Amino acid sequence: MPRTALASERGRRQSPLAVKARAPPFIAPACRGRGVGGGGGFGTFLGWRLSAMAANEGEGSSPLLRKNEHRYHPGCPACDHDRRKDLQTGMPYKEFLYVWMICLTTAIPISSLFPFLYFMIRDLHIAERTEDIGFYAGFVGAAFMFGRCLTSTIWGIAADRIGRKPVVIFGVFSVVIFNALFGLSVTYWMAIATRFLLGALNGLLGPMKAYAIEVCRPEHEALALSLVSTAWGIGLIIGPALGGYLALPAEKYPNIFSPDSLFGRFPYFLPCLCTSVFAAAVLISCIWMPETLHKHKVNENGNQSVESLEAHLIEPKEKVDQSNSSDTKKSLFKNWPLMSSIIVYCVFSFHDMAYTEVFSLWAESDRTYGGLSLSSEDVGQTLAITGSSLLVYQLFLYPRINRVLGPIKSSQIAAGLCIPILFAYPYMTYLSEPGLSIILNIASVIKNNLGVTIITGTFILQNNAVPQDQRGAANGLAMTGMSFFKAVAPAGAGIVFSWAQKRQHAFFFPGDQMVFFLLNIIELLGLLLTFKFFLAVPDKSDSN
Fold it and tell me: What is the mean pLDDT of each run of 10 residues along the chain (544 residues)?
């Protein structure tokens, strides 16, 4: 056959689509001279893979959807959600609303009791003397965190086994029941038991951090995680406000609530009931909450084999380094930059929880014992103003401070400034209104914002100390340690506060001056641990 006729015959047999599938322009230069497009097994396999992708593109279908089609299993609710997520181009507002409401539900009960805890212990008649109120109040404040410390890991495992949605629904249901029962407590041990069960059965925080990332596309993950901390900040505003304004309603609002009414016989039930009603509304809305845990075995190896071979041609060095990193990962317990940052995080968390417990007890105790004789409404208002300032500070001021100073330097400066502020607290008892309220609110706002600077800085160090695929386990380890220290802190602070009130005429730091002195010792210890002899700074290359 003549050469021109042979060329014409070949051109007639090969359609443009076949030519496109046979030699894609973006891969042809990389394949020349390497034997990839030849008759070897790898070249045949890769050629078939690229031909199929090109053919699908020519038929008008989306290559991304066709590539991910094998991930979707019929009857799996998580696969249905992943399909919708892949098709969605905007922000998942409905799923973000679930994250925000559920995190708010678990944040409000933690802080709502502090404005009225002193008066609740007084009315339960468990303390024989006024000086002993702080001792018993400390164990009530510690019961929630102690329960969460024991079960947080269990709830995380359950969320990975049975799904995020069942764990979330059960956790919100526990808030509805046990938070209301806490407000109905008629004995000290009933208050301890209900707070402990509220913490032990409320395993929402860990699963919600995982859920926040799973419901959105990668470009929205940072916003999803910020919703968790933002909801926590708003809970610090709403919780103390509810506890301060709605506790003892028969005394504060006698025209609305009579002493013989339900809220008169149970003076601390109204703020707890409001929280439970909100949790009940969230519980009903969780019926339509999408599940993100797959109900089938995900074959990740099969999905990655072809893509890893293709990517090796385009970015060989980067992919080889990434595959080798899985064999050389550090154990979390041998990763000293991580462990040192977790230890610093736990020390400052212990200090913050002890300060929160002491602040309410000190502000509401009588002036004869070195307190301020404030009402629960006054304390709730102060905590609500402080919580509002935290929200503004986290959103607008802290990012700029961290950008200029970095997490370590900003934490050191904040810890150093906290020490003189804490030394000034006991001397506020010599002030009178309105100067007392102004100075107290200013000091509370500054102290708590400095504490947030330290905690956020240590959190950044923790995430920079591990690769991305180890951050979940690292955060879980930090959460367990933090819960333990926050469980010990209220009990220890209550015992020290009760002891200090019995030594009003001592020579060395009498009365509440000893309490704030010990808080400063813990703050100073945390400050010393932020320097290089203890706190190791991770290399940026280790966290990429």
Answer: 48 44 41 42 45 44 44 66 70 85 90 90 90 90 89 81 88 95 95 95 80 78 71 81 91 91 94 96 92 65 37 40 45 88 93 90 89 89 87 82 90 96 93 92 93 85 74 72 88 91 86 93 96 82 41
Amino acid at 141: G
Residue 218 DSSP label: G
Residue ranges in 59-163 assigned as alpha helix (H)? 63-68, 77-87, 93-112, 117-123, 133-161
CB contact set of 13 (below 8 Å; sequence gap of 6+) = none
Gap between the Cα atoms of 360 and 444, Å rounded: 11
Q: Are 322 and 469 in contact (CB under 8 A)?
A: no
3-state secondary structure of 537: coil
Q: Is the separation of the CB atoms in 259 and 402 below 8 Å?
A: no
CB 97 within 8 Å of CB 281: no
Burial (Cβ within 10 Å: 0-12, 13-18, ≥19) of residue 404: exposed
Residue 387 near residue 233 (C-beta atoms within 8 A): yes
Is 92 within 8 Å of 85 (Cβ atoms)? yes
- 490 closest CA partner among 49, 42, 65, 146: 146
pTM for the model: 0.69
Cα distance between residue 110 and residue 140, in whole Å: 11
Q: Is the peptide bond before 434 cis (omega within 30 degrees of 0)?
A: yes
Output the CA–CA distances (angstroms, integers) from residue 261 to 183, 253, 266, 275, in the order listed. Answer: 15, 12, 9, 20
- What would the 3-class secondary structure string for 315-348 be? CHHHHHHHHHHCCCCCCHHHCHHHHHHHHHHHHH
Quote the tokens at residue 506.
């001592």
The Cα 122–Cα 101 span in angstroms is 33
Q: What is the dihedral of CA 421, 422, 426, 429, to 10 degrees?
A: 40
Residue whose token pair is 């629960």: 376
Closest CA to 394 of 326, 455, 444, 307: 455
User: Of all helices (H) and strands (E), which one includes residue 523?
Assistant: helix 512-529
Token pair 């000893």 is found at 514
